[in-house]
C-alpha cells in the first residue's frame, strides 16, 4: 500500500514536471492532449482497477480478523469508565475482576466483550489488534491474540473528557502455567 | 447616455452610502462577499493561533503549558472554527463575490438574504469566540459525541455554546446554498446555456445542492441534542431508549459530505485558474461535470467510514469501505484532467501556478492516505491516531487552502485594482509549503507509532518526543508563511501600482469589467452566442468589455432607481424575465440581531423569554416580504432596443419561487433525518420497546388534524386560482380560511400528543414522537402565516391578476404542511395501528 501510494504520487509529480518541460520547448498553441487517454485511461480505468484490487484484499484481511467461534477461545469482559478500566476474567472459582490490568493467555484467541457505562471510550492495544469503541448501551466484541507472553500497553483511543490522555491500561499475556495460576487466584 | 454618465447613474442605484450607515445596510453581493472573505480569514487567524498553542503544548512530553481543561477547548475550537467559521464562509464569500460576475449578472438572487446570512455568521461566530475568551468554550471535540456532550458529562454551557452558536452560523450556510443554487440556475447572462457555463459555476452548483441536503442532518442533530440538554428529552441516552450512535450517524451524514463541500469550490478554483496559467482550455469539460455529479452522489454514501470502530458488522463496513475508496475515482479523474490541461498548454510558473503545484503535491498525498484509511483493517489501527490528523490536514489544507491561496493571488487584482508586490508572495509560498510538510508529514509517523489524537500530554518513554518537536517547529514556520501572506496582501492593497484590466489574459466574464469591480458589475449585460466556448467569450470577442460599457447589451438603461438583472430559462439560457432586486436596507441586520437574541436567550436558559424573538422574527419576516413590489402594474419592460420582457412578479418561475422550492428540499431533508432517527432508535437502540406507547383517545384529534391540514391545502390552492382569475374577494376569503385551517391543524396535533403520547422525557420513543408532532405543527403554523400574508396582500391591492408569485409560494408551503402532517401522523400512529 505504501509503495503503491509512493509510486502514484511520483507518477503525478513526474507528469507535472514533464508538462512544464514540454511547455517550454514547443511552439505556442496547437497541441491537443487526447482526452480518452488522460481521462478514460489514467483518470478512470487505472484508479478503478487498483482500488478494486485493494478493496478485495482488505476485505479478505478484515474477514480473518473478525471474531468467530474457536474452540480455544477465552471471553473477557472489559468495561470503560471515566477514567479506568474494569476487566472480568474467567477464574477457576468464578469471575476475577481486575482494574486497569487485563490478564489473557498467550497463544489463544481472546474475545473482549466491550461494555460502556458513562461516555464512549475505545479499547486499543496496538500490538494485539485494532481498536473497538466502547459504546454505552451497546456491546461490542473484539478478537485479540498475543502470540507470546509479555506485557502490552493499551490506551483509550476515543476522546472521553478531561483525563483521556491518562486513560491507559495494561494487558498481561501469560504462558499456559501462568494463566492457570492466575485463574486459581494466585497473582504472579 | 455616455459610459461615464451610465457608470454614475448605475453606481447611485447599486452602491451603498459611505461610512457605517452603508456598512449596516448594504446588500450588494460584492460588499457581502468581501466581508465574508475578510471575516473568514480573521477566524482562520484565530484558529491558527489555537493550533500554535496546541503545538506548543505537544512540543515536549509532560508539558505543563496548559492543562487538559484548556487543551480540550483548544482543539475543539480549532476544529470547529476551521470547519464552520473559516472554510465554509470563505467559500461562501468567494461565491458571493464572484458568481454574478462569472455569470454575466449584476447580483445574486436574494441580496437581503446574503446580508442576513452574513450578520448571522458574524454574530454566531462572535458568540463562539466570546465563549473562548471567557474560558467556557466547547470542549467535547468538534464532533461533540454524546454522551460526553450530554448534560450529565458536560454540565456547563460549553456544549450549548457549540450547539447554539454553530446552528446560528449554519443559517448562513443554508441561506448561501439556496441563493447560490437559484442564482446559477436563473440569473445568468442571456444565451448562457447550462452546459456552456463556466466550470466554476458547475462546481458551485453541485456544492450548493450538496449543502442543501447535507446541513439539515447536522442542524437536526444539534436541535435534538440541545433539546435533550435543556428539557431532558432522551434522544441519545441509552438508559431511556436513546443511542449515542444516532448522534454519530447524524453528525457524519453531514460531516463527510462537508469534506467535499469544502473541497469542491477549491477544485473549482483550480479548474478556473489552471487553464489560464497553462494558456489553454480545460481538458474534458463534460468529463469533469460528470465526475462532480458522481462525487456529490458518492459522498453521501460513505459517512460510516468515520465509524469503522463502533462495532458495525464487517460486511456492512465493506460497502462503506468500497464507497470510500471509489470516491477517489472522480477525484483522480480531475487530477488527470488538470495535468492533461497543462500538457496541452504552455504553462507559466507564475505565483498562482506555484500554489497549484503545492496543491498537487499535498492533496495527492492526502488522497493516498485517504485510500489507506478507507481499508477497514488499516483503519482499525490508524483510527483516532495522529495518522488521521496528518491525513485530514493533507486533504483540507492541500485541497482547500493551497487552491484558495492560488485563487487569492489570481483574483486579488480584481478586488483591489492593483498589482502585487514582487517576491514576497513566493517567499510566503515556500514557508507555507515547507512548514506544512514538516508539521504534518512527520505526524503520519507519530500516528503509526501509536500516538492517539486529542491527548494533552504524553510520557517521554513513548518515543514520540522528537517527531512532535519537529512538527511544532514546522507549524511555526508555516505560521510565519501566513503572516507574510497577510503582509503581502496589505502591501498590495495600500501600495501596489494600478493593475491593468484582465492581467492574466483570462477569457471569462468576470474580467470583462473595470477593476476594482463597480457595484453594478456590468453597465449592460452581455448576450452569449450558442458557440461561446465554456471558458468565456473574451478570447473570441476581446472588444466585449468596451461594448458592454457603452451600453450595447441588456438593461443598459438606469431607470426608476431599479436594481435590474436578467433571469433566464434554466437550461437554454433564453431570456425569461427581468428581476427587480431589493436595495439597501437594515432589515437583514435587524433580523439577524433578533435571531441572535433568540439563541442568546436559549443559551441563558430563559426558554419562555426566547418566544419573544420568535414572534419578532415572524413580524420582521412579514415586513421583509411586504416591502417587495408595489400596487401598480408594471407590464413588460424594455430590455434592449426592440425587445421587452415581464418583471419577475408578473412572470412564472421567479427566483422567489425557486428559492422556496429549494428551502423546502432542505426542510424535507430535515424531516427525513428525523424519521431516520425515529426508525434507527426503534431498530438499534437498547431498552426498547418503551414502557408506554401511544394509546387511546387520539382518534378525534387525528381526524381534526387531517381534516384541517387538508382543508388548509385546498383553500390555499383555491386562493391562488381565484387571485389569478381576478376574483379578489373570493381569494381573500379562501386565504383567510386556509390560515384558520392550518392554525386548527397545529392545535389538533398538540391535542393528539397530549391525549395519546407518554411524556417526552420518559423514553426516546416518546421524545421522537413529540419531535415529529412539533415539526408538523410548526409547519402548519408557517403555512398559516403565509396564507395570512396573502390575505393581507390581496386586501392591500399588492396582488393583482397576473401577479401570481405570492399566492403560489403560499400554496407551496400549504401543500408541504399538509404532506408533513400526513407523513408525521402515519409514523407517530404506526405503533398503534400495526399489530
Automatic annotation (TrEMBL), chain B:
It is found in: Cell membrane. It catalyses: 4 Fe(II)-[cytochrome c] + O2 + 8 H(+)(in) = 4 Fe(III)-[cytochrome c] + 2 H2O + 4 H(+)(out). Residues 8-529 form the Cytochrome oxidase subunit I profile domain. Its main location: membrane. Keywords: Cell membrane, Copper, Electron transport, Heme, Iron, Membrane, Metal-binding, Respiratory chain, Translocase, Transmembrane, Transmembrane helix, Transport. GO terms for biological process: electron transport coupled proton transport; oxidative phosphorylation; respiratory electron transport chain. The keyword Lyase does not apply. It is a multi-pass membrane protein. The chain crosses the membrane at residues 36-54, 74-98, 118-137, 161-187, 199-225, 259-278, 285-304, 316-342, 354-376, 388-411, 423-446, 466-491, 587-608, 614-634, 655-681, 701-722, 734-752, 772-795, 816-834. One of its GO terms (cellular component) is plasma membrane. Its EC number is 7.1.1.9. Pathway: Energy metabolism; oxidative phosphorylation. GO terms for molecular function: cytochrome-c oxidase activity; heme binding; metal ion binding. SUPFAM superfamilies: Cytochrome c oxidase subunit I-like, Cytochrome c oxidase subunit III-like. Pfam families: COX1. PROSITE patterns: COX1, COX1_CUB. PANTHER family: CYTOCHROME BO(3) UBIQUINOL OXIDASE SUBUNIT 1, CYTOCHROME C OXIDASE SUBUNIT 1. Belongs to the heme-copper respiratory oxidase family. This is cytochrome-c oxidase. The lineage of its organism: Bacteria, Pseudomonadati, Pseudomonadota, Alphaproteobacteria, Acetobacterales.
